[in-house]
Amino acid sequence: MQDNVMQTQAQPFVKLVQANMDLLTQFTTSPEVTSQSTANAAQFLQQASESAMKLTQSGAFTHLMQGMLKNYTEFLIEVSQSWMVTMRQGHDMFAQQAQEVAEGVVDVAEVRGRRARQAA
Predict the structure, then answer these.
(1) Would you say 16 and 10 are in contact if contact means Cβ atoms under 8 Å apart?
(2) What is the 8-class DSSP label of residue 30?
(3) Which pLDDT score is estimated for 2?
(4) Of 66, 64, 85, the residue nearest 74 (C-alpha)
(5) DSSP label at 58?
(6) Distance between CA 70 and CA 51 in Å, rounded?
(7) Residue 64: what pLDDT?
(8) For the chain, how big is the Rg over CA atoms in Å?
(9) What does DSSP assign to residue 1?
(10) What is the mean pLDDT of each run of 10 residues along the chain (120 residues)?
(11) What pLDDT does residue 76 have?
(12) pLDDT for the residue numbered 70
């Protein structure tokens, strides 16, 4: 019963909201509003395009582009240097391992030579 009382009391508010939503929907979809919105959107795009064109011709934009070019150039230099260091370290490690292997071969040859002399 209490639900019926609440529903009855809320009914005028619900009807008001629904009626206002219907009116707003009719207003926003009317031909006059649609044509005005389209004209405003076209005008906005025109202004945005003109503004963007002016910005690209400004000193601030030139400074931005020069700064970005400098940043990317520095980045590429740093990456290249990092690769060179890595390659040099790999080469040094390979040379060190080759040296150790060569020393191991010489040591084995010396041990075999001593054994051969001692056996003879």
Answers:
(1) no
(2) S
(3) 66
(4) 66
(5) S
(6) 26
(7) 94
(8) 42
(9) -
(10) 76 92 92 89 91 91 94 94 90 88 76 73
(11) 93
(12) 96
Q: Which two tokens stand for residue 79?
A: 């990456």
Q: Which ranges constitute the DSSP H helices of the chain?
A: 2-28, 31-56, 59-119
Q: Give the whole-angstrom CA distance, residue 118 versus residue 10.
A: 115
Tokens of 54: 């002016």
Please name the amino acid found at residue 53: M
Q: Where are the domains of the chain?
A: 1-57, 62-120
CB proximity list for 27: less than 8 A, separation 6 or greater: 33
How many whole angstroms separate alpha carbon 37 and alpha carbon 50? 20
Tokens of 119: 């056996």
| Whole-prediction pTM | 0.45
pLDDT at 115: 74
Residue 111 CB: number of other CB atoms within 10 A?
10
Sign of torsion, CA 21 23 24 28?
A: positive
Residue 106: the pLDDT is 72
What letter represents residue 88's amino acid? Answer: R
